[in-house]
Each structure stands twice: as C-alpha cells, then as structure tokens.
Amino acid sequence: MSSIPVTTDCPILVWMLSLNREYTKEEYDASYHIIKECVPHENIVYNPQNADTFRQMMKSMLPLLMMRHRRIPRAKWRDCVTPAGKHWIEQIPDDLPPEKFLHSMIGYHLATENSLCGMAMTQGIQRKVVNIGLGMKQLIAEPRGVSVRAYVESFAHKLTPLELSLMAPELGDEVMLRRLCIIISLKQAYIKAIGQPIGFDLSRLEFNIPQETVIGDGHPLTGWEFRIFKANLGVARKDLLVEEQYQCVCAFFRGTPDTKFIWHDSQKELESWVQFINIDQMIKVIPKLTA
C-alpha cells in the first residue's frame, strides 16, 4: 500500500485482518515476542490456548505493519495517547521541516469482532487525526439458534423508538439483521471516534438512516463523515470453510457544516482505501516488524 500523502484533508485508510484459520503455538509465540518488544503498552497475558489473546495480538500488530509499509523504522516513531485513550503515532522529527512534521501525525483506531481485526487511520495534524473510529458487527444472530426478531429485541435498550421502527418484523429477517448491524456499527464507530468508554449509553444517539441524519442527546451532530461498507470473509473452521459477513463503519470528524453518509457497496469502491490481509500475510512479515 502506498504511503498516506502529506495533506491537510486527512485521507482515510482502513486495514482489515481476517483471522481465517487456526493458529499454531509457534505463530502465537512469534506474535507474543513482537508485542512484548514493540508494543509494550499492550498488556497481553501469555496463554496460547486462548484465541482472544491471539486476536488481541494480531490487532495490536496492525500499526507496526502500517509503519513497516511506510518504511519508517520502529526506532523512528512513538505511539502516543490522549487522556481519552485516543492513539496517534508521532514520527521522530529529525529531518522533517516543521510544517511537514505538524501534518505527519497518524491517528488510528483498532477494533475486533469475532474473526475480524480492523484498523482505521488518517494523517494530518494531531487534534484532527485522533477523531477516528471503527465499528464492526457480524451479520449473525447470536447465540446460535436464536431468532433474528429476538436478537433485535435484545438490542432494544441501545436503540431509539425510531431506530426500532426501521427494523419492523414484516421487513423480514435479512433486512432486520442488516439494519441492526449498520446502526450498531455506526454507534460504535462514533463513540470510539470521540473516545467514549465501553459503558456509553448508545440510546443517547439516534441514526435516522433514510434521512441520513444523526442526533446526540436530542441535538443534531454535524461535521461527521461515516463510511459504511461490508467485509466478506472465508474462514476455515476445522475441515469446513465458513463464509462470514461483517457490517463495518469508519467514522471521522471533518468539522464540515453537514454530516455525510458514504455507502460503499462494491469491492471496486473499497480498493482505493480498504486493504484486506490474512493470518499468513501477517505471520510472514513478523521478522521484519522490529526493523
């Protein structure tokens, strides 16, 4: 992937890592050593039997991979964090002119959902680039066997009456599930972009999808860009290849007078700003991540 150009309009890139197969203990150990050496702020407990810790490590290696692609050595950048927990990468200025240094900050947000790890990032000045968030929701009713209607109802406390009205049972299971996942992903992306903790009351936000508007605590939220897209994965589960679909949203505050909802429905539209990789590709590059 090409480097993010130095510009003031904060171009967005997203990387999606598919956990498309089981991992080996050797792969787990290699990942663990890299995290300990290069991402010491990630306090991951060593437990090769725990798939959640492997997923956490894969997610935490995405910024390393991104900087490796930009050919910036690990010793030449540092990971910074705001009081609200928003991360950005600052390059060691060395030979960068002041203006270029000012616009070289890389804000990013990491997310996981079942077999998918994601990173949304943008470059520009620090106070802008940290306002980025990524939301992801698998299009599946859980636990297995529960009806879509019951699954939607289990989210009722996170939705407004208007949002629930967009998921009426007569629309059918597929539409109900898709709309639920879109709205939950939008809310997740927004609260992560503003640095809110996990316990944030999602019903304080209302996304009116037909009108493409959003309000928070009864007031219109303007200046936001929401990019809405899907990730389709093929995941090996023992001897079976299972197809999984994820609804994804990248939220970024641009400070414009309006709020934009940008829908990406085709793979071709995504190729310019979303990159998909898998476990094999990540493991293969591990020896180079410390350079």
Features:
31% strand; alpha+beta; six-stranded mixed sheet; Ribosomal Protein L22, Chain A; four-stranded mixed sheet; globular; 29% helix; disordered N terminus; 291 residues; 13 strands; 9 helices; single chain
- Overall geometry comes to globular
In the CATH scheme, what's the topology name? Answer: Ribosomal Protein L22, Chain A
Report, as a whole number of angstroms, the end-to-end distance: 18 Å
Give the quaternary arrangement of the chains.
single chain
Count the domains. 1
Overall SS class: alpha+beta
Runs in which pLDDT lies below 50 for 5 or more consecutive residues are 1-8
Query: Major sheet, described briefly?
Result: 6 strands, mixed
Order of helices and strands: EHHEEHEEHEHHHEEEEEEHEH
Please identify the top-level CATH class: Alpha Beta
Question: Portion of residues in helices?
Answer: 25-40%
Major sheet strand order: 2-3-4-5-1-13
Number of strands: 13
Give the overall pLDDT as a whole number: 92
| DSSP summary: helix tally | 9
Query: From the 3D coordinates, which CATH architecture would you assign?
Result: Alpha-Beta Complex
Protein name: holo-[acyl-carrier-protein] synthase
GO molecular function: holo-[acyl-carrier-protein] synthase activity; magnesium ion binding
InterPro entries: 4-PPantetheinyl_Trfase_dom_sf, P-Pant_transferase_sf
EC number: 2.7.8.7
